[in-house]
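hey can u check if this looks right to u? its 68 residues, i copy pasted from the old doc so theres a chance i mangled smth
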Amino acid sequence: MMKEKPQGFKKGDKVVMHTCAEAKLDKYHGKIWTCITDEQELPSGERVVGLEGESACFATEFLALVKM
């Protein structure tokens, strides 16, 4: 039986950064971001998502879903 992958972040989800260098910066601390892509897995195995206002993908291990 094939294991299903856990459902990751989806486009439109609201997230906040945690336990990373960026989360400690005043301009990002506590900021709520909107995902502009669904979560994707890179060839390296790292899971990333696009965030509104950022030019690069961001590692999902440092994001938490915000329930609104």
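The radius of gyration is 12 Å.
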